[in-house]
Write a structure and sequence with these properties.
With 352 residues, the chain is an alpha+beta fold. It contains eleven helices and ten strands. The radius of gyration is 38 Å and the shape is elongated. The two termini are 76 Å apart.
């Protein structure tokens, strides 16, 4: 039996040395190490041997099996390397060609702009205050001086989530970040109801309006609410703050203008335009051929809103604004369509 094992090992190694491809190697493995191979038959016949022969033959059979498996692994590696070398030689790989670049993740341009806006406002002394996106009609409209039948509600086509039996206070997706004004004022006022502390916050977040999508307006958009409340705050403070922000955002030479407007939660109210950098003031679809693009609405906080927030309008005054970061980014980078931001076109997003 020992002689037979030596013969099996010698024959297997000789035939293995002549193999040069993977198919033949697979066939050799089946014939030499498979269940029907001579070596496996030796293992199957160990039970018929005497007690003296069984350990000797078993040990030798295991040695032969390990030797053949080791030789098989070495031959497989040699065939693999030979095939690789042949492939490199025949395909003539040009190692001077540039490699494939790896796509690196990055922040969405809207997020980048939002952070840039908040960095500027932080330098100007405003702290970030976050508020919820799902609101009630009370906070989104009523406490901001929008009665249920107020005509100004027609300016904002609201997305209602749940009406049910809630009467005049259904749940909705906020149409503006202004509800954060009430929540912030009430939160600050709770710390000292008799003498509420001054407020200077910037409240960022997503807003939603079911309206016509155009090159300059979207169904969803980011907004940054600004609110400053204290004693002896005037409209001049508002103008100075906005003018300083515009210079920091667009440069010292950026032109801006204030236009009288109307918002139920501010009085007086204004809209702020910046010269359209997309067309250089000549007129385009972004600025509606006016040469100017509105970047925010603002005004002095209405006394009713101050009262609803827990601040006595006879003692305190304040200003507020709501600005659109996407429109600012359009101006900074001469983007002619706001729909690019939410179109998920990688060709556009990779530019930022």
């Amino acid at each position: 039996m020992l002689d037979k094992l030596n013969e099996i090992e010698k024959s297997a190694l000789e035939s293995l040395a002549a193999i040069t491809d993977q198919a033949a190697l697979d066939a050799w493995r089946v014939s030499m190490l498979g269940r029907s191979s001579e070596l496996m038959q030796v293992f199957a016949g160990l039970g018929k041997l005497s007690k003296e022969e069984k350990p000797v033959v078993g040990t030798e059979a295991n040695r032969v099996k390990v030797a053949l498996e080791s030789a098989l692994a070495e031959r497989a590696e040699a065939i693999k390397n030979a095939a690789l070398a042949k492939s490199l030689e025949e395909e003539k790989l040009d190692v001077t060609l540039p490699g494939r670049s790896v796509n690196i993740g990055r922040l969405h341009p809207s997020t980048q702009q939002l952070r840039h806006v908040l960095d500027i406002l932080a330098e100007m002394g405003f702290q970030v205050y976050t508020s919820r996106e799902v609101e009630t009609d009370e906070y989104n409209f009523q406490l901001l001086n929008f009665p249920p039948d107020h005509p100004a509600r027609d300016m904002q086509d609201t997305m209602y989530i749940e009406a049910g039996d809630r009467g005049d206070n259904p749940i909705l997706l906020r149409t503006q970040t202004s509800p954060g004004q009430i929540r912030a004022m009430r939160e600050f006022a709770e710390t000292n109801p008799n003498d509420p502390p001054p407020i200077r916050i910037a409240s960022p977040g997503m807003c939603f309006r079911h309206e016509q999508i155009t090159a300059r307006s979207e169904i969803q958009f980011n907004q940054v609410e600004g609110l400053a409340v204290g004693k002896n705050i005037t409209f001049a403070d508002l103008k100075g703050t906005i003018a300083d922000f515009v210079r920091r955002m667009f440069g010292e030479g950026a032109r801006l203008r204030f236009r009288a407007s109307y918002f139920p939660f501010t009085e007086p109210s204004a809209e702020v335009d910046v010269e359209c950098f997309v067309c250089g003031g000549k007129g385009c679809q972004v600025c509606k051929n006016s040469g100017w693009l509105e970047i925010l609405g603002c005004g002095m906080v209405h006394p009713v809103v101050l009262q609803n927030g827990g601040y006595d309008p006879k003692i305190y005054s304040g200003f507020a604004w709501g600005m659109g970061p996407e429109r600012q980014l359009m101006l900074r980078n001469k983007i002619n369509d706001i729909r690019y931001f939410w179109g998920n076109d990688v060709r556009f997003l990779e530019q930022f």
